[in-house]
Amino acid sequence: MSLKSLVATGTKLWLDSVDPDLIDQNIALGATGATSNPIIISDLLKTGRFDSTMETFFGEGMSDEQVAWAMTDYLVSDAQDKFQNISDATDGDDGFVSFELDPLLEDRERNLPHAERVKKYIELGKLWGKGYMNRMIKVPATAAGLDAVEELAAAGLALNVTLIFSERQYKIAKERVWKGAQRRKKRHAAIQECLQHFRLARRCVHREVCANADTRSARASRHRECEAAMEAQPGFLGRQEAAAETGDHLRQHRNERSEAAGR
Question: Residue 248's domain spans which residues?
């Protein structure tokens, strides 16, 4: 099945990248949105294609971490501009680009208290999402992420609740998004839209594994074990490594600039 025939069935095609060139190509094929994460951003920065933009941010005195997030904002904003016409044409029902919050909040080595992680998710979500009509804030379905969802929805942010591996996580996320929407005096269409953008991953596969048990009680027990095992996985290892690699790349870039200036 071609992409055009897939789109013709009513399926929304979202690009798993914010590469400007890929976005142009895929919009022509029918893509109506895109998503990003630290791995995607890290890989794009490593290409060297955006060094001049990074130079501008470094020239403003930004730290490596600030440059990393400024570049994320830059690339996501550029993608949003490309999808703005789709957002306008669908009255805000499509044309979104996802911006993922800091995965290092879940870094076990940092050992941040739960309440502090919840607070940071809310602060960062409002920082990077406020005022954008076609930006989705991507929040993980961890304990802290889920506890931040209601407040973020109440703030009027469109949400992409990611790393959902169980029905329990899905139900909690759905309930909290709805509660947040109810708290707003005037709901925005983007809030209602976020109800449709939970990411379900591996859930059906693990349900099938659980169903192979011999008895109903054994299946129920095995299913609970599967869900618990999936939810216990941090789901951030690749993203955390990418965030760290981005920092290393920016430090190397900064050092090279210093060496060149000293010659």
Answer: 3-262
Q: Give pTM, 2 decimals.
A: 0.77
pLDDT in tens, 58-80: 999 999 999 999 999 999 999 99
CATH number reported for the structural domain that contains residue 209 in this entry: 3.20.20.70
- For residues 28-38, one letter each, b for 16 or more C-beta atoms within 10 angstroms of the residue's C-beta and e for the rest, the string is eebbbbbbbbb
Q: Report residue 121 as tokens.
A: 């998710």
Cα(220)–Cα(177) distance, integer angstroms: 28
Rg of the chain taking only CA atoms, in angstroms: 20
184-238 pLDDT, tens digit each: 755 444 444 443 444 444 433 333 333 344 455 555 554 455 455 545 555 555 6
CA distance 186 to 242: 38
CA angle 96, 100, 101 (to 5 degrees): 135
Task: List % helix, strand, coil for the chain (3-state, nearest 5).
Answer: 65, 10, 30
Single-letter amino acid, residue 83: F
Would you say 95 and 134 are in contact if contact means Cβ atoms under 8 Å apart?
yes
- DSSP for residue 150: H
Token pair recorded at residue 80: 């949003």
User: How many domains would you assign to the chain?
Assistant: 1
15 DSSP β-pair partners = 34
Q: Is 148 helix (H, G, I), strand (E, B) or coil?
A: helix
| Helix/strand number for the chain, H first, E second | 12, 5
User: Distance between CA 67 and CA 90 in Å, rounded?
Assistant: 33
Q: Which residues of the chain have pLDDT under 70?
A: 1, 185-263
Cα dihedral 234, 236, 237, 238, rounded to 10, equals: 150
